[in-house]
């Protein structure tokens, strides 16, 4: 009996250590979701009787990692059947709304919304578009393109074809091909040749 009991305890301890090594989303898939209580806390803060408990929202999200916040986002949907982003938009306002949504959002979802706002909204800031697209590595840029298509049912390429012109459009469409060399080692000979071509191109 004691041998069996010992092995059961050993198995539980081993499992708990294993769960710690898993990501939040993997843990949730196994039925052990440490971020569920935070999803509940955010929900309760939003639907508070008197007014929205902004302090509770701040204390819940500001000390979480990106992995934690992604798990909260996913768990909220599974528990309440609503998108956390949509709920935040419904209940919050102003700069606080924008900041909380930016923190909760996965980076490629956030960038997809910012690009859409620049292309379709009131802002036409080419610098924002350049800052976003030039800083994305191949894998992240592909994820961003996929997120944009999911959210807005059209491709980034089609959007830039419609809403930009000239050499700026050519540059962006070239970037969206995701063919940039991502090797960390610098080829100085190629860099020099490229610099000369740019110089002579004016």
UniProtKB/TrEMBL annotation:
Keyword Disulfide bond: no
Keywords: Signal
Domain of life the protein comes from: Eukaryota
UniProt signal peptide: 1-18
GO molecular function: calcium ion binding; calcium-dependent phospholipid binding; phosphatidylserine binding
GO BP term, example: endosome transport via multivesicular body sorting pathway
Entries under InterPro entries matching the protein: Annexin_repeat (IPR018502)
Listed GO CC annotations: cytoplasm; nucleus; plasma membrane; vesicle membrane
PANTHER family: ANNEXIN, ANNEXIN B9
Name of this chain's protein: Annexin
Originating organism: Cotesia typhae
């Amino acid at each position: 009996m004691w041998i069996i009991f010992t092995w059961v305890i050993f198995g539980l301890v081993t499992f708990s250590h294993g769960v710690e090594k898993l990501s939040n989303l993997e843990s949730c898939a196994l039925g052990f979701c440490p971020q569920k209580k935070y999803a509940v806390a955010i929900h309760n803060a939003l639907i508070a009787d008197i007014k929205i408990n902004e302090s509770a929202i701040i204390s819940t999200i500001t000390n979480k990692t990106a992995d934690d916040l992604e798990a909260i986002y996913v768990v909220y949907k599974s528990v309440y059947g609503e998108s956390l982003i949509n709920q935040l938009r419904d209940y919050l306002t102003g700069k606080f709304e924008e900041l909380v949504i930016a923190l909760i959002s996965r980076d490629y979802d956030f960038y997809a919304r910012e690009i859409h706002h620049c292309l379709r909204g009131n802002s036409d800031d080419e610098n924002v578009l350049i800052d976003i697209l030039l800083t994305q590595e191949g894998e992240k840029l592909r994820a961003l393109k996929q997120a944009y298509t999911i959210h807005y049912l059209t491709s980034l390429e089609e959007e830039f074809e419609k809403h930009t012109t000239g050499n700026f459009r050519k540059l962006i469409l070239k970037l969206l091909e995701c063919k940039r060399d991502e090797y960390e080692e610098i080829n100085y000979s190629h860099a020099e040749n490229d610099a000369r071509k740019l110089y002579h191109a004016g």
